Amino acid sequence: MSTDPRTRLLLEAPIARTLLRLAAPNVLVMIAQAAVGLIETYFVGKLGTDALAGMALVFPIVMLMQMTSAGAVGGGIASAIARALGAQRRADAHALVLHAMVVALGFGLAFSAVLLVGGRTLYARMGGEGASLEAALTYSHWVFAGAVLVWLFNSLAAVIRGTGNMAVPAKVTVGGVVFLVPVSPLLIFGWGPIPALGIAGGAIALLLYYLVGTLALLAYLRSDASYLKLSLAGVRLRWPLFRDILRVGLISSIATLCVNLSIAVATALAGRFGAGAIAGYGTASRLEYLLVPLVFGFGAPLLAMVGTCIGAGQRERALKATWVGVAMAFVMAEAVGLAAAWFPRPWLMLFGNDPAMLEAGTQYLRAVGPFYGFFGTGLVLYFASQGAGRLLWPVLGNLARLAVAALGGWLALRWSGELVHVFVAQAAALVVYGAVIAGAIAGGSWFGPVGWPRSTAGLLRRVGAS
User: Fold this and answer.
1) CA dihedral sign, ordered 330, 336, 341, 342
2) Which residues contact 8 (CB under 8 A, 6 or more apart)?
3) Are 414 and 109 in contact (CB under 8 A)?
């Protein structure tokens, strides 16, 4: 059976050059997707501090859905397809397209049910009250009513990325952002016969973006240009294929949940200092969330390369590619963090000028920004581990981060009562997160001692000898 050129590229081409080539459109698409949230935040910020605080309450939950659908379960989808193509199981790869859509529908409906019923209780426990709580509920009810659209969009994009094609999701997402830029303010503020919908308008614009994107991806998968085809004829749903997606996707979801719980806990702790502190922390921490899609730009092709190499039995190449990806992600994330720590106010003032918001946001960026490189390291290793189908240590690293962030933040408030010390605990949590995962993989946690170097030094000796 002949090998698809994209699959051969992942198995044979120079690693660094290939990752950069595949990452370029993917970073573009992730910047565009991150811009979706920033566009919304910018316009919602014009509605006042209460609206901005309400959006900050909902944002960790929206990002939980985004990261679960695109990075966790989406990573499981891309990993399953990459491994199937690497092992020359093309029929299974085709069938996985329909299985991915079924998984997306199930998770999307579950998110809608939970947040529509339990949203008020959740946001109140995170510190929302009065006008900020009502703004949060308005935004949340609209977004999560359309959760299925978010899940379908990200799952279909993951299907295409699993083949090594990063360009099509990039084009669709960038096109969607071009659509969103005029539609979001139009619905928020109104114009002519279109009424001003306020914060609800931002949520409706977001759902329209995902609807248009989903239709575009479906059209591509039905076209002759797609390597994999979406077909309902002759495809029987099979548990082994669901299991291939979910065994990576569900475990990855634990890691994703921990990331967002860390942010949610810090939001709740900041809530003790008022709506301005919530808005400041929520706005500043969006920069960390911005790093997620940027690192994903490298992580998605790395996932495809690692999964394809492992499917083809090339374990050593898979691990070498992983460390190349780590170097790229660390440099990028650290550069963003240092720039934010040195110049926090230009970022924060994009979204408002409330003094309490600016003070809290500045404290966060100066405390946590210099350690963003560790966040980039842990996150890119999470994507590589999805490709390898080995998620234990990324999950443990995220649990360690959550424990340090939550316990450290609580102790900081108990001992000092200063918000800045809560953010110091967040910085320490990022260091623990990156170091735990990197140390475990460098020690051989993916494949054990059988036929596999248990240290980076051993790997380098073997690569140099080959």
Assistant:
1) positive
2) none
3) no
* Pair 402, 359: CB distance under 8 Å: no
Cα dist from 360 to 30, 49, 244, 281, 457, whole Å: 27, 13, 44, 6, 43
The structure tokens listed for 100 are 């991915």
Domain boundaries along the sequence of the chain: 5-465
| Pick from 138, 124, 127: nearest CA to 51 | 138
SS (HEC) of the chain: CCCCHHHHHHHHCCHHHHHHHHHHHHHHHHHHHHHHHHHHHHHHHCCCHHHHHHHHHHHHHHHHHHHHHHHHHHHHHHHHHHHHHHCCCHHHHHHHHHHHHHHHHHHHHHHHHHHHHHHHHHHHHCCCCHHHHHHHHHHHHHHHHCHHHHHHHHHHHHHHHHCCCCHHHHHHHHHHHHHHHHHHHHHHHCECCECCCCHHHHHHHHHHHHHHHHHHHHHHHCCCCCCCCCCCCCCCCCHHHHHHHHHHHHHHHHHHHHHHHHHHHHHHHHHHHCHHHHHHHHHHHHHHHHHHHHHHHHHHHHHHHHHHHHHCCCHHHHHHHHHHHHHHHHHHHHHHHHHHHHCHHHHHCCCCCCHHHHHHHHHHHHHHHHHHHHHHHHHHHHHHHHHHCCCHHHHHHHHHHHHHHHHHHHHHHHHCCCHHHHHHHHHHHHHHHHHHHHHHHHCCCCCCCCCCCCCHHHHHHHHHHC
- pLDDT tens track, the chain, 466 positions: 455 676 777 777 778 788 888 777 667 766 766 666 677 777 887 888 788 888 878 887 887 898 789 878 988 898 889 888 877 888 888 889 999 999 999 999 999 999 999 999 999 887 788 888 999 999 999 999 999 999 999 999 999 988 878 778 878 888 888 888 889 889 999 988 889 898 899 889 989 999 999 999 999 998 888 888 777 766 788 899 999 899 888 887 887 788 778 877 877 787 777 777 777 787 777 777 778 777 877 887 888 888 888 878 888 888 888 999 899 999 999 999 999 899 988 878 777 677 878 888 888 899 889 999 999 999 999 889 888 888 888 889 989 998 998 898 889 888 887 888 888 988 999 999 999 999 998 888 887 643 333 444 443 344 333 3
Q: What is the CA radius of gyration of the chain?
A: 22
